[in-house]
Amino acid sequence: MKKYSWIAVILLIVGLMLYAKPWSKKSLPSNEFRFVIVSEPPTLDWSLATDNVSADIIFNLMEGLVQYDANLNVQPALAEKWDISKDGLHYTFYLRKDVTWSDGKPLTAQDFVDGWQRLLDPKTASEYAYFLFDVKNAQDYNSKKISDFNQVGVHAKDDHTLVIDLWHPASYFLTLHAFWATFPLRKDIVEKFGAPQWTEPQNIVTCGPFKLKAWEHDYKVVLEANPLYYGPKPKVQLATAYIINEDSTALSLYETGKVDLIRRIPPLLIAKYKNHPDHKNGPFLRGYYYGMNVLKKPFSDVRVRKAFSMAIDRTQLTTLLGGNQIPTTSWIPKGMQGYEPEIGLKFDLDKAKLLLAQAGYPNGAGFPQIKMAYDTRDDNKVIAESLQQQWKQNLNIELTIENQEWKVYIKQLQTDAPPLWRLGWGADFPDPDNFLNLFTSYSGNNLTRWKNKSYDALIEAGAKELDISKRLPIYHKAQKLLTEEEAPIIPLFIDAQNVLIKPYIHGYALNAMSINILKNVEIHK
Amino acid sequence: MSETLKKSNSRSLWQDAWKRLFKNKASVISLIYIVGIILVAIFADVIAPFSYETQSPQDRLLFPNTTYLMGTDILGRDLFSRVIYGTRMSMSVGIIIAFCSLIVGTIYGSLSGYVGGRLDNILMRIVDILYTFPSLLLIILIRVIFGPGLFGIFFALTIVEWVSVSRIVRGQILQVKEMAYVEAARAVGVRHQTIIARHILPNILGPIIVTLTFEIPAAILSESFLSFIGLGLQPPFSSWGSLANDGFQAFKSYPYLIFFPGMAIFLTVLAFNLLGDGLRDALDPKLKNT
Hints:
The complex is a heterodimer. By secondary structure, chain A is of the alpha+beta class. Chain A has 3 domains: 6-61 and 195-260 and 502-523, 3-Layer(aba) Sandwich (D-Maltodextrin-Binding Protein, domain 2); 66-183, Dipeptide-binding Protein, domain 1; 283-496, Dipeptide-binding Protein, domain 3, CATH 3.10.105. Chain A contains 15 helices and 19 strands. In chain A, the strands form 5 sheets. In chain A, strands 11, 12, 13, 14, 15, 16 and 17 form a 7-stranded mixed β-sheet that branches. A 4-stranded mixed β-sheet of chain A has the order 1-10-9-8, with helices on one face. Chain A has a 4-stranded antiparallel β-sheet with strand order 4-5-7-6, with helices on one face. In chain A, helix 8 runs antiparallel to helix 10 and helix 14 runs antiparallel to helix 15 (468-485). Chain B is mostly helical. Chain B has one domain (36-287): MetI-like fold. In chain B, helix 4 (79-115) runs parallel beside helix 12 and helix 7 runs antiparallel to helix 10. The longest helix of chain B has 37 residues, at 79-115. Chain B is elongated and about 75 Å long. The model of chain B is unreliable at 1-8 (pLDDT under 50). Classes of the chains: A alpha+beta, B mainly alpha. Chain A binds chain B through residues 246-248, 266-269, 271-272, 316, 319-320, 376, 378, 381-382, 384-386, 388-389, 392, 400-403, and chain B through 53-55, 57, 60-61, 74-75, 147-149, 230, 234-236, 248-250, 253-254.
């Protein structure tokens, strides 16, 4: 009896080995590129998307009138050429005639007008509606002052000519057309299925290099090469984005060859991977900051805001992260015009304590019990714990930490922001206006609730000025106001890109805006 | 004569139990370990060489060495000190929750078992409902209501843990209340509360103590689990579970970050379970013989 059982065990083991061998050797189809996104995309509706996860997908489904090359220069895309009037007020875009939507219908200038109408429609409540406020009557339409969209300065002259009239010259206006909110839209599809169902794979109609093949919520998003794409066809047939919010899980999937690209390395492990041949480091036009809800006590007092900002040694944070991040007290990031590292509230303990005492909390006494919030992520946790300790040590103020999943977190910031919270801001277009406009009183993304008329006026003046030598002094003033005098935010550091990419992947270029462009990706195994 | 006989008899029950317990080597070692770990929890300030929250960024992610016995974490905090303070957190959470659920469970169970009838039926159906309710879901719900912090953890875990205690106590009482001495007390006219407190509870103390030794590690594990999935203690406080959570993402590169807190959880839970086994054998010789 015993003998037989041994034979059975041996047979079982051999069987398992035979079974496992072909399975482990099974090579993956070389035309599928697999990458990681850190959360479920909140939306794939480009009139509504505000975050970089949604953008990672949308930028492959859609294109705009123009696009960036790897150095962030503007290149033609859906528009083959354009004219700008001398005074900078009138733009005429001539569309390519060979572009079709993924359902076979040709792209027309009217699709842009429809997209913009939806973006500006107050019912859509898009946070990016303000992107078009330079266009004639756009703001009035958005604030329901006028109801006839024909009065807004965007018109389809014919099927392939789009004419735009601005109120005033806007130095960055051309780059806006590489941003997802301005992409064309199929009005008939949106109306037929309604939002948000129209972005489901069976309904959505797009015109970029990839089509949405499948969207298995909280698991993966599968993109498939679009056979009707006007440009060179993508080299990979499929591009799959796996939704994995644990950086360490993503890393082990990368290690075991289950994904080809991860764009975040857990802070615990960055030192280990810094010399890895797959590791690529690049600059990033992305600021990391803590915002304060200026409507709530105690941050309604500017002295408290300044004290909190001055009590932080930012170099400690970048040491902890260890991925070439740059500590900063100003807001415009390095690599963008207007970067002035000397602006901002520097680490100054004595002054911070003095300000706190003047605000009525000498040595932190009587300071209310408040919480600081961040969205669940390894690096955010490290930063939050370091800040908590620094404020305790330097100001004798104890804060409680609370973290939430991104979707819940951003909803909470928008509806009822806690006193102190974390966010990052990545460039939508490589112009200082994009960073400073964020904190205007009319910006939908300004969650500090800080409103300042002279700041708004400066940003408007900067946008209208086409001469860069005159713009920069304006932005100098605006940055001083934002990060020194009023301080509704605590800028901490400028992020850096740290990615791991398999050596057999070619054609994936890092750009400082971290736009995830997959159409040139090739796999050579 | 009869007086002394009675005394020596009652003493020898517990003496017997002690004797049996001390014969069980695993239980003795566990008992010593538990006493030791309780002392560590009480004197954490004295034992820990550093504070649990002092960060020294220049000393981050060091492997165990002579200064930092268990190494340092990503923020440069001494892991040894954090495990020591974590002991205090985990042990007090374990003990407090076990006692709370013991008190609630005992009162509820005695009421149900002693009164019996329709009340018993109702009370036990409530217990059944609580039993079938997914405990993790319940804990998360309660944590959402109370927000982060220690009180929420105590409350949530007590609500989940007391149920099994009440069942055990009820079962014991059902047995004991039919005994002749209880009937005798009732016949003499002793009040119900007195009967439960004086005559029944002392006789089911054995099983209750055993339950307690199993409840404590269960509570420690639950708290560790909650902290591990991020619903437990908020930083900078540490319990073994939250320490393990911090360490687990890099267990291949920095294995010590999860090894030490994991070991602490493992050994403590094991020790309580071994002691509980020993106590059950010692207090209930009938069970041992079967």
